[in-house]
Amino acid sequence: MAPSHLPVSVRLFSALAIKKALDETLLEAFTSTTGIGVDGVYEPTNVLLDQIEAGARPDVLVGVTGALEKLAAAGVLDASSLRPLTRVGIGVAVPRGAPAVDVSTADALVRALTSARSVAYSRTGASGVAFAALLERLGIAEEVNSRATVVQKGFTALALTDGRADLAVQQLSELRFVPDAHIVGPLPGEVQHYTDLSVALGADAAHRPEPAALLRHLTAAPAQDAYRAAGLEEPHP
């Protein structure tokens, strides 16, 4: 996050999925180039939506595409500024140094999840909602949830570092944020779920040059390198 003493700042609300790219590369480069600070709030999109419902108004919002489209239709966001940003799949991690588990097929994933002492996942983030639905489809929801470590928000892989769980499930970019977690793989293709993320200006900020400059920075071609390095992919056409 940029120093608060900078004379001009932009209020950014962002889904956790791109926090690593923002923290490690993009925001520092933006502030160094423009002199504009960024005050960032990082939460699952559903949590950000609750804050917006309560009256919060970010200058720039990054979140699940469908949610942003609804906010744009409601006039909370500037619809003309809405841009696709990136997409991310779900992965599985174990504590660093622990034996790897096989998650390469749906059957292998079921064996890994049902044999784990505890699986950590979040029910507020997009990946957690999708994973909870997947457990139901696979017919193992009751078995896994009976000993799951449910994280209300934040990075599920932190539950690996303190011993609460031995498997963590979350978006791949969020798993990468915890250095002591080892990603054993993405969910297999037949059960993978991708979350598309977009960015838009708040309706009240659309006339200001500073939020517009941040939006251009986040959607410029060089930003895709930072997203890829953080485990994200180019947005789906």
TrEMBL record:
<dbReference type="GO" id="GO:0030973">
    <property type="term" value="F:molybdate ion binding"/>
</dbReference>
<dbReference type="InterPro" id="IPR050682">
    <property type="entry name" value="ModA/WtpA"/>
</dbReference>
<dbReference type="Pfam" id="PF13531">
    <property type="entry name" value="SBP_bac_11"/>
</dbReference>
<dbReference type="GO" id="GO:0015689">
    <property type="term" value="P:molybdate ion transport"/>
</dbReference>
<protein>
    <submittedName>
        <fullName>ABC transporter substrate-binding protein</fullName>
    </submittedName>
</protein>
